[in-house]
Write a structure and sequence with these properties.
single chain; mainly alpha; 71% helix; 0% strand; elongated
Length: 136
């Protein structure tokens, strides 16, 4: 009620421009209040609410269409099986490599003992073995 009197001290020199400014200011705040009332419960059944059922139906239809178009691809369980088989194969190869490296270092000549026994292949096998232990 006293807002126009405060505005007279500031940018407005008469009451009428202050009244017009106050009308638009009030109109804006009432509009914000009405929007907040509409958004207070967005998941109801009225026409202004978010239509969760329609979103769900559209999502399910999209997933079904994608699955129909991907018939030639493997299923998730087949992919998991293939991944597990590849992992076991890699594990066996790494263990065989480690055994080969151990055999070469333990059955080498006496000249190979020392710095040469700790060559790149032995260090690499150690790192691969360590990586396998970490991944378990």
């Amino acid at each position: 009620f006293t807002m126009p009197l405060v505005l007279l001290e500031g940018p407005f020199s008469t009451v009428w421009p202050a009244q017009i400014f106050l009308f638009f200011l009030t109109y804006g705040f009432i509009g914000l209040e009405l929007v907040s009332i509409k958004l207070s419960e967005p998941f109801g059944d009225s026409r202004d609410d978010v239509q969760i059922a329609n979103i769900r139906d559209a999502t399910m239809e999209g997933i079904e269409n994608d699955l129909k178009s991907m018939q030639f691809q493997m299923t998730i369980s087949d992919r998991r099986l293939q991944f597990a088989q590849q992992r076991q194969k890699l594990k066996r190869q790494n263990q065989q490599q480690m055994m080969d490296d151990k055999y070469q270092t333990s059955h080498g000549s006496h000249d190979d003992y020392g710095y040469h026994a700790m060559g790149e292949s032995n260090g690499m096998a150690f790192l691969i073995g360590l990586l396998i232990q970490i991944l378990k």
